[in-house]
Amino acid sequence: MEKIVMETNLNQSRRLSINLAQIAASAFIKSFYISPEDWGFLNEPPSQAVSDRVLQLLQRARTTQRLFETSIRYPTTILAKDIVKVTACFVDKAYEQIYNWVKREVSAQCFEAIEISVVLRKCLEVLQDRPILFKYVLDEYANARRKVIAEAFINALTVGWNSGSGFEPVATKPMELQSHDPLRYAGDMLAWLHQASASEREYFKSLTSDKVEIELMHDCLNNITNGLAYPLQLHLEQLLVTEHSAVLLYKINNILQFYSSVIM
């Protein structure tokens, strides 16, 4: 009788251990398993809603990675190894999905005053974990903004609708109407450039986080304002080649020196 009781207790103990193991395994899989539905989001066409959801899934996957890196550095079980491998693949594809959407969004920043959504800002902050992808995005953004700012400068010179400062469009006379007054003409062009550069700097800061390297910011802003170099040089050369007054040339040179020190 005593033997039967001992065997019964042993079987109950084994059954309890099995149940606990099943519960632990279920909890483990629930915590770290990536469902087919989650994978499906990575195959959806890039959009703001999809990117917002992918951000959440990416955060969860990165948490899993950090947990394994700190607690289980060398996974030994087949299940743990599979989770590490699958999670790494998911993270890579999630970054790629976010990158594709962000690249499309920044390429569309073709207005003089840009619009930045909360999701776009979050995505850009996340992409900073992948420096190469982040650099590609900044290059795409700079290309789009360079075209916008160059066109705005030409319009300010010839048409007079100067909204390149980033504020509401204000009807102004074309700057070329002041070409008979070289000092004012040069000053107006350089003042416009200074204001536009400051606006682009603010746009960049609102687009990215404070973690962005200063060098990256300067490279991006330089790429944007490079679109102004040729038209500015052309108009200044046309202005100076016809001017023979040493006093006036000296004053223009002072203006150039001043704006060279304050722009960017």
UniProtKB/TrEMBL annotation:
A Pfam match: COG6_C
Signal peptide: none
GO process terms (BP): intra-Golgi vesicle-mediated transport
Limits of the Conserved Oligomeric Golgi complex subunit 6 C-terminal domain: 81-263
GO CC field: Golgi transport complex
Name of the protein: Conserved Oligomeric Golgi complex subunit 6 C-terminal domain-containing protein
Species this chain originates from: Schistocephalus solidus (Tapeworm)
